[in-house]
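Reply to dn_fold:

You asked what the input looked like. This is it:
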Amino acid sequence: MLIRAAQGEEMRQEWAPLSRIAPVLGRAVLASEDQKFCRHFGFDWQSLNEAWADWSEGRRARGASTLTMQTAKNLFLWPGRSLVRKGAEAYLALWIELLWPKARILEVYLNIAEWGPGIYGAQAASRQFFAKPAASLSAEEAARLAAVLPNPRRFSAGSPSGYTLERAAIIRVKMSAIASADAQGCR
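and this is what came back:
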């Protein structure tokens, strides 16, 4: 957010406690970004090993960041891809996992994630794209928001492309496997 603000970009951000964000959004984000969130301690070792193997063999490495790692990056670091940034991200993710319960990690992530150009946090995104508070999101709206997370500057939850709608449909299917308790921070 600070980098975008320094670049002169208009920003909208509105904090909402986890209790005022529809649980379906937590489920959608976990289904989309980190299905093992409640079972790992900040690192998905299987995904990291697969990404390393891809990179080692010259293939484009797929994402292996957990929600905790993404929270560390969004909260403390800069965008971009480098081993230095990834190392700092891993170090910070470890501390976040040690100091915060899963519910706090999810709450912070949902409130600092960029959901569209200059739109930060679930509450601002819900108001911008669906003209309602985050507490009132439907499962379809939540899935559309989660579908844009890989590239919220390219994809829109409010005016979804065919790709975004397809991705949202896949997320909706995966959401059924995410328990409601998981979507509220792994209680």
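The domain at 2-183 is CATH 1.10.3810.10 (Penicillin binding protein transpeptidase fold).
Hope that clears it up.
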